[in-house]
Structures are given as structure tokens and as C-alpha cells.
């Protein structure tokens, strides 16, 4: 009986130890999720911004993908793993050249190995028509 109890206790300890290490993971946290470029002229159609994030987890964070909803919006991101407590950036360039003036809102979908696996960032603004002289 004592042997069975010892084996069961050993199995329980191994299961708990295995579960505690499986919860170790990367966790992405952004400083902001939306950037508003405000109002800008059609004569100056290229706008840029940066989203900063921190790995709040206890495993290295990897950005697997950053995809924009439109070809006029181009994200670039930190390609190297971000260690726990480390910071990274996602830079976004919006190019309104050839687009209709007015309000716009674009989405950048970020996929990671951490929690959450997917985050959506947004850029928006108002491009005013260039005044002809």
C-alpha cells in the first residue's frame, strides 16, 4: 500500500511540474493599438508611425507576421526574438498617393508565438484634397 501511495505521489508531482513549465510563454503588450495621423494634405501623402511593444512573458517573443489590410500600408517589424522584459517596434508607413482624399482607417494584423497570438493595430487619418492654384 505504501508503495502505491509513493508512486501516485511521484506521478502527481511530475504532472504538476510539467504543467507549471507548460505555462511559461511570451506575452506581447503594446503601448497603443491605434495611431491617428490627423489631417494632412494630399501633397504630402506619406505618413509614418511606430508602435512599441514589450514582452511581458517569460519566454522569447517572436513576431511571425505583420500584414496590412491594404497595399498602401506597409508594416516592418523587429525580426529577432524579443527576450522577456525586452521591447520591439512595428513601424508603419501609409502612402495615400493616388488614393481618394478623405478619412481612412487601415488594419495591421500581427501574429506572434505569444499571448495573444493575434493583435490588430490601426492607423487612421484624413487626407485633404490638395488646393489647386
Hey, roughly how much beta strand do the residues contain?
over 45%
Low-confidence stretches: none
Order of helices and strands: HEEEEEEEE
Largest sheet: 4 strands, antiparallel
Q: Tell the overall outline.
A: rod-shaped
Strand order of the largest sheet: 1-3-6-5
Provide a concise account of the structure shown.
The chain is built from one helix and eight strands.
Sequence-ordered SSE layout with sheet pairings:
Elements: H1 2-22, E1 28-30, E2 34-41, E3 46-55, E4 63-68, E5 73-77, E6 87-95, E7 102-112, E8 118-128
3D structure, described in words:
This protein has about 130 residues and is an alpha+beta fold. About 15% of the residues lie in helices and about 45% in strands. The chain contains one helix and eight strands; from the N terminus they run αββββββββ. The strands form two sheets. It has a four-stranded antiparallel sheet, with no helix packed on it. A hairpin with a 5-residue loop joins β7 (about 100-110) and β8. The longest helix has 21 residues, at about 1-20. The chain starts with a helix and ends in a 5-residue tail after the last strand.
List the keywords.
alpha+beta, four-stranded mixed β-sheet, 47% strand, rod-shaped
Amino acid at each position: 500500500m505504501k508503495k502505491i501511495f509513493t508512486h501516485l505521489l511521484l506521478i502527481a508531482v511530475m504532472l504538476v511540474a510539467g504543467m507549471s513549465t507548460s505555462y511559461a510563454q511570451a506575452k506581447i503588450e503594446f503601448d497603443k493599438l491605434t495611431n491617428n495621423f490627423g489631417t494632412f494634405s494630399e501633397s504630402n501623402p506619406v505618413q509614418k508611425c511606430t508602435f512599441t511593444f514589450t514582452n511581458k512573458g517569460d519566454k522569447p517573443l517572436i513576431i511571425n507576421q505583420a500584414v496590412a489590410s491594404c497595399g498602401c500600408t506597409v508594416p516592418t517589424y523587429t525580426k529577432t526574438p524579443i527576450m522577456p522584459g525586452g521591447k520591439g517596434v512595428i513601424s508603419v508607413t501609409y502612402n495615400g498617393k493616388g488614393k481618394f482624399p478623405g478619412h481612412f482607417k487601415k488594419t495591421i494584423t500581427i501574429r506572434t508565438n505569444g499571448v495573444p497570438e493575434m493583435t490588430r493595430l490601426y492607423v487612421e487619418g484624413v487626407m485633404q484634397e490638395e488646393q489647386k492654384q
